[in-house]
Amino acid sequence: MKNQIIDVAILGSGYGGLGMAAQLKQNGITNFQVFEKAPTLGGVWRDNTYPGAACDTESHIYCFSYFPNLRVSKMYVEQGELLDYLQRFAQHYELESQIQYNSEITKATWNADEQLWDLEVKNAAPVKAKVFIPAWGQLNKPVIPDFKGLEKFKGKFFHSAEWDSSTDFVAKKVISIGNAASAVQYIPEVAKEADHLTVFQRSANWIMPRNQQIFTEAELDEFEQNPDKFFESRNYIHNFRENGFDRTQVGTAAQQEGVRVALEHLHNSIQDEELRKKLTPNYEFGCKRILRSDDYFPTLTRHNVTLVTDGIAEFTENGVMTTAGELIEADIIVFGTGFASQNFNGELDIIGNQGDRLSEVWADGAEAYLGLTVPSFNNMFLVYGPNTSLNHNSIVTMLEIQHQYIVDAVKYILSEDVLVDVKQPVFSAYNQDIQAKMIDSAFSSDCSSWYKNAAGKVINNWPLNVETYRNYTQFKLADYIVVSLEAKQGEPA
Ligand SMILES: Cc1cc2nc3c(=O)[nH]c(=O)nc-3n(C[C@H](O)[C@H](O)[C@H](O)COP(=O)(O)OP(=O)(O)OC[C@H]3O[C@@H](n4cnc5c(N)ncnc54)[C@H](O)[C@@H]3O)c2cc1C
Ligand SMILES: NC(=O)c1ccc[n+]([C@@H]2O[C@H](COP(=O)([O-])OP(=O)(O)OC[C@H]3O[C@@H](n4cnc5c(N)ncnc54)[C@H](OP(=O)(O)O)[C@@H]3O)[C@@H](O)[C@H]2O)c1
């Protein structure tokens, strides 16, 4: 049987993949298929069901501009409403029939004879596509570090992104390993139920007040009846967030102001001097993600919560032995230990037009032109690729900019019947430029963070603000080697 040939194969059904599919459709490109390894859509908002899971950028900017979330109930809205938004989005753009679930793409090989991507799909027939768009996300491969003795622990344990909803914390001793963006959201909720909660902190975090805003019915009616009101709020927040970008630049007045606000928040929340000291970060503001929480600090003052800053020596049958020699007992351990954020392609093997494997090309750290294209991996466009994550604004805005670029490129590829391959000098100059711009950024300063690799190179974050990324990210033919497919029939590209 001949393999199915489609114009575009999209990998993933989070904000990245769904927005891509909708934009292709809106632009008349309908011969595409979305491949999703999970049984349902939603990406991180399907996976992160831990109590308290919510966005920490304002919901008015955490949606697509062309599908505003007009009746979103809060500024920092919970996971359920975000998943509902994505489900409504897929319904509105009639995407469901083009999403193939339980279909992990395991291998993608550029087929030089046929000038197509050959895609191997777990549990399903292989597919051939003219264009391949991996929208695999940066934060969906949960990691539990390889702790000594963990296999001996007799209680229950799980990762924050794989929350076991059957867990009853009542009357239980609980340990949380990790205290960053995920943990500061579930810790207040777990503490309300557990007999005792011990929080292991390796590094303190810079935490700002969140100041939740819950919209009244009257406000929601107004947003719905007069979307200009919603966009006024959205634009204000976007600009406010853009102005806040300088907080991530070392030595700026804005960064100092960020430090002041965070320390004031800590002082207002915690009276105990020793606890305050433990909770005061010893690295640059902005080096890790700046957190937002109003209930994390107060939770640490509860009678049933202890903050431990000693290291983890090993796990035992009954809990964790600290490096200070104290055994902390637990019935349940929650790992808020983050994700394999730098392994963009995960298990997926991608082979380009020179026979190179993407994982080998990226052995010293992933790089792409504008986070989108890699030389010799022609007609492949990454969504939320290397150096496109942010600390200061909404990732969804970055994704929307990428979708527009890819639509322009795909239109050209399909109408002209060509392949496009980013020029090596363009790619190299771009990556040198953004790494040079990283020098003044707190992202490259000294702390452990998922933004940078073991060599200290920042490979996840974009070094500038969103509007600069928008200006950079315009599809220009001059950046690409363009090859007519007719001329190339039968030859390697
Ligand atoms: C808990 C949490 C909260 C966050 N909050 C915010 C926030 O407040 N603001 C913000 O800007 N960003 C936030 N982020 C970042 C978030 O990753 C992005 O905002 C955005 O949701 C990324 O969407 P995505 O589609 O690129 O990736 P994902 O949502 O990760 O989707 C990728 C999809 O690809 C699928 N997939 C992966 N590999 C394969 C394969 N080989 N074959 C088939 N399918 C595959 C996955 O199953 C998944 O469904 C948060 C992240 C997390 C984890
Ligand atoms: N919207 C939101 O509010 C929200 C919520 C969740 C996640 N997110 C996104 O997802 C990203 C990841 O967040 P995350 O909190 O899941 O992961 P993370 O930021 O990578 O944090 C992992 C936590 O685990 C600790 N840790 C890791 N390995 C450890 C080890 N071997 N021993 C002891 N402690 C260890 C880390 O300590 P160190 O700090 O010392 O490394 C840190 O506290 C965020 O930065 C954000 O972009 C957003």
Any overview of this molecule?
With 493 residues, this protein is of the alpha/beta class. It is 30% helix and 17% strand. It is built from 14 helices and 19 strands. It has helices at 15-26, 44-47, 79-92, 183-193, 217-225, 227-243, 253-269, 273-278, 296-300, 358-361, 395-416, 424-437, 466-472, 485-488; strands at 4-11, 32-35, 99-100, 105-111, 116-121, 127-134, 156-159, 173-177, 196-200, 207-208, 291-292, 305-308, 312-315, 319-322, 327-329, 332-335, 349-351, 418-422, 480-484. The chain has a seven-stranded mixed β-sheet, with helices on one face. A five-stranded parallel β-sheet has the order 7-16-8-9-12, with helices on one face. It has a three-stranded antiparallel β-sheet with strand order 13-14-15, with no helix packed on it. α1 links the parallel β1 and β2 (32-35). α1 packs across α11 (395-416) and α5 packs across α6 (227-243). The longest helix is centred in the C-terminal third of the chain and has 22 residues, at 395-416. The protein is globular, with a radius of gyration of 23 Å. The protein starts with a strand and ends in a 5-residue tail after the last helix. The model is unreliable at 489-493 (pLDDT under 50). The protein binds flavin-adenine dinucleotide and NADP nicotinamide-adenine-dinucleotide phosphate (NAP). Residues 55-56, 139, 145, 160, 177-183, 185, 202-203, 289, 312, 336-339, 448, 450 line the site of NADP nicotinamide-adenine-dinucleotide phosphate.
